[in-house]
Design brief:
The complex is a heterodimer of chains A (about 290) and B (about 450). Chain A is α+β, with helices and mostly antiparallel strands. Helix content of chain A is about 30%, strand content about 10%. Chain A has helices spanning about 1-30, 35-45, 55-65, 80-90, 125-130, 145-150, 180, 210-215, 225-230, 255-260; strands at about 100-105, 155-160, 165-170, 190, 200, 235-240, 240-245, 265-270. The longest helix of chain A is centred in the N-terminal third of the chain and has 27 residues, at about 1-30. Chain A is elongated and about 100 Å long. Chain B folds into four domains: about 25-100, OB fold (Dihydrolipoamide Acetyltransferase, E2P), CATH 2.40.50; about 125-280, 3-Layer(aba) Sandwich (Rossmann fold); about 290-360, no CATH class; about 375-440, no CATH class. Chain B contains 14 helices and 17 strands. The chains are: A alpha+beta (about 290), B alpha/beta (about 450).
């Protein structure tokens, strides 16, 4: 009988001792963590996409709590709603950020850009880009092997079988920038979504001289400069035979679009033009609501 | 038992169908395109402008740094324009395009056939001459030869190794050079020995070229210090580190250059170019190149001027067969498929290989079954399947610690893989990324 008693007492004593040590240790080594971090993390979308520039939502929550001014921090996935909730929790001012969307700046479809050779290597744009200039005469354009689609966590991209180019599903795109990083050719750009999703951009990144670019692809920017001249807002710049539209300066007047001799300038989600503008229907334009 | 390197290696069918064809001089092309970056290192700076008249051997682009090389005009005529041309990989690179007119050589070049055996120049003068004459490694890597001949301070070279291995299947240009230009080549070896101040030179030749071995052995009978080392046929024996291991049994440590173990390796073609540069004052303006393939009606070895379009070479070898699936610049193992046939011959072009459709395609990729064949085949003792996965999954720190940078891109792993996995494709990509990280770190 006494053996049972001794065992129980000894174990109970050891347990009590360990409890005291653990309590003291936890008091001694206590780390204070702002409870607001948990609250903010709760409010964030938990996509862990890295679109904010931080490794995951937790790290972003910590940064939000730590920062005095959070106006330049933004969660592209959650958008203004989430950011205002966060601002409410922290009692800080939220910055105004324009919603962005990914844009594919290449329209080198099978029709527009004839294939000159056949690639059989690993199905990865990065591998192909490390090897050579691509299947067409344009060494700047899309390889069509889908590294960007692979990188997208939001089902916002797919490869169009017919054109061989990636297509962005605007409604799903959260502008996290994963595809931008995945593209070895820097074709994809995050651009301002624009009012009613209306936007204008140059769908080409070819920096070859005009004749060379045009020979390789029907819809290449040939660097003629017509768009630069016609733009009333100085939004278009020309560098290395390639025009670029600054989306902050662009007022969406659409004057440049019919000017482009190769239809390299794309307008998205605009209402149809009035009949007098004859060139409005670019024959190579991709379907609306996608690019 | 013949010597070979100690780890890995494969044995592809050698298919040297042009081995019996003596070197033919290809007629001058009408127009040449000479790229200004034909070597590893800084591109050369163009010295001529549109409309200039140039002579054969005139410098048209000056070296852009220590690791760089002069480019000389391979033809005489008028500079048509300076423009960008599509290179073998489909990217556009700057080049000098010259319309050929006659064949007017620079007076300083000795065009006589006489063999000049005495070497009047000193070691420094030889190295300077080799640099001036634009000599680069002609085995394919195109590393400027004068850089290899100038060991960094504190390093001492005690043996010169001449690479006559030509382990790539199909290629026979080095083989023909050894057979037909052997005397000149041996003088070239002596020039290199003098430049490096060494008393020993080893010429490594694979055993599938018995005529070349015999010929050179006869030539070096009375030469002291030059040995001919027949080697067992094994790919990639032509890799510097493999050749050093095979010939003199020394292992170059990971990430180090051959000079670390006191060796300098030069290719047979380079050695001949060095002879011509030092003894005849002739810059590197032409080279021997093999045009071959199963469907080619007249497999040949041509002596061509740099800048000649590949299409002309194929024409001279009987034209492109109907069932052509792929044209490769270089050999089947390490060569690169050409994206267009107007690309010019450069200093590093060793062969043009035309493959028919049935041999040109890759087989469907299957899953890795961890059989380890790639590990046994890797001549650098790496684990290719692991490096591929690490690159795919962006585990670049692990790829680095698994020595991805030691890969010599010989392709033995892809060749041996029973699941047809694109191992080298990914390893090459990983090497690029890891190399970038290492450069940023420093």
């Amino acid at each position: 009988m006494s053996i049972v008693l001794i065992t129980i007492l000894t174990l109970a004593g050891l347990g009590a001792l360990a409890a005291v040590i653990l309590y003291l240790a936890s008091q001694k080594f206590k780390v204070f963590e702002d409870p607001r971090i948990d609250q903010v993390e709760e409010a964030l979308p938990a996509a862990n996409c890295g679109g904010c520039g931080f490794p995951g939502c937790r790290a972003f929550a910590e940064a939000l709590v730590k920062a005095d001014d959070i106006s330049d921090l933004n969660c592209p996935v959650g958008g203004p709603d989430v950011m205002s909730t966060v601002a409410g929790i922290l009692g800080k001012e939220v910055g105004k950020t324009d919603p962005m969307v990914a844009v594919v700046r290449c329209n080198g479809t099978c029709e527009n850009r004839p294939r000159l050779n056949e690639y059989e290597g690993a199905t990865s744009c990065a591998v192909a880009a490390a090897l050579y200039g691509g299947e067409t005469g344009c060494s700047y354009g899309c390889y069509g092997l889908g590294d960007c689609v692979e990188a997208c966590d939001f089902d916002a991209m797919y490869m169009d079988e017919e054109t061989g180019l990636p297509v962005i599903i605007e409604d799903n795109c959260v502008a996290c920038g994963a595809c931008v990083d995945a593209c070895p050719k820097d074709i994809i750009e995050l651009r301002k979504k624009g009012p009613k999703s209306r936007r204008i951009f140059i769908s080409c990144v070819n920096q070859d001289k005009g004749a060379v670019a045009k020979k390789a692809c029907n819809v290449a920017c040939i660097g003629c400069g017509k768009c630069v001249k016609v733009c009333p807002f100085d939004a278009i710049t020309m560098e290395n035979n390639l025009a670029y539209i600054d989306y902050d300066k662009c007022k969406l007047c659409r004057k440049c679009v019919p000017e482009c001799p190769t239809n390299a300038i794309h307008e998205l989600n605009f209402p149809p033009r009035k009949p007098k503008a004859e060139k409005k229907e670019a024959p190579v334009n991709t379907p609306e609501s996608s690019n | 038992m013949l010597k070979t390197f100690s780890i890995g290696g494969i044995h592809p069918a050698d298919r040297k169908i042009s081995a019996g064809k003596s070197i033919e001089v290809l007629p001058l092309p009408k127009r040449v395109a000479v790229p200004v970056a034909q070597h590893i290192g800084a591109p050369a700076k163009t010295e001529v402008k549109k409309g200039d008249l140039v002579k054969v051997g005139q410098v048209i682009a000056k070296t852009g740094g220590f690791v760089s090389a002069n480019i000389h005009s391979p033809v005489s005529g008028k500079v048509f324009k300076l423009d960008e041309i599509v290179d073998a990989s489909g990217y556009r690179k700057p080049a000098v395009i010259i319309d050929v007119d006659g064949d007017d050589w620079d007076e300083s070049i000795d065009r006589s056939e006489t063999l000049k055996t005495d070497i009047p120049l000193s070691s420094e003068e030889i190295i300077k001459k080799v640099g001036e004459m634009g000599i680069v490694g002609m085995g394919g890597a195109t590393f400027p030869a004068h850089v290899k001949l100038s060991p960094p301070p504190g390093k001492k070279c005690d043996v010169l190794i001449i690479n006559g291995v030509e382990c790539e299947p199909y290629l026979t240009s080095d083989h023909r050079v050894m057979l037909e230009r052997g005397e000149e080549m041996i003088v070239g070896v002596k020039i290199l020995m003098k430049a490096l101040n060494v008393t020993r030179a080893v010429i490594g030749i694979e055993n599938n070229k018995p005529d070349a071995i015999k010929h050179l052995q006869k030539l070096v009978q009375h030469e002291s210090g030059i040995e001919i080392q027949p080697l067992k046929v094994q790919y990639p024996q032509g890799g510097e580190k493999q050749l050093i291991d095979a010939t003199i049994g020394r292992q170059v440590p990971s990430g180090k250059l051959p000079i670390e173990v006191g060796a300098v390796v030069q290719n047979v073609g380079t050695t001949l170019a060095v002879y011509e540069a030092v003894q005849k004052n002739k810059p590197l303006i032409e080279r021997v190149i093999t045009v071959t393939g199963p469907g080619i009606s007249k497999p040949s070895n041509f002596l061509v001027r740099i800048g000649t379009p590949v299409s002309q070479l194929i024409e001279a070898a009987g034209g492109l067969p109907d069932n052509t699936g792929k044209v490769i610049g270089g050999g089947p193992m390490m060569g690169k498929a050409l994206t267009n046939l107007e690309v010019p011959v450069t200093k590093g072009s060793s062969g043009i290989l035309v493959l028919p459709h049935e041999e040109a395609h890759r087989k469907p990729v299957e899953n890795c079954i961890r059989c380890g064949k790639c590990i046994s085949a890797c001549p650098m003792g790496l684990e290719p399947y692991l490096l591929m996965i690490e690159t795919e999954k962006e585990l670049l720190d692990r790829a680095e610690s698994d020595n991805i940078m030691d890969c010599i891109e010989c392709g033995s792993c892809s060749f041996t893989c029973p699941a047809n996995r694109p191992l080298l494709d990914y390893i090459r990509l990983g090497k690029g990324k890891v190399g970038q990280i290492i450069r940023n770190r420093n």
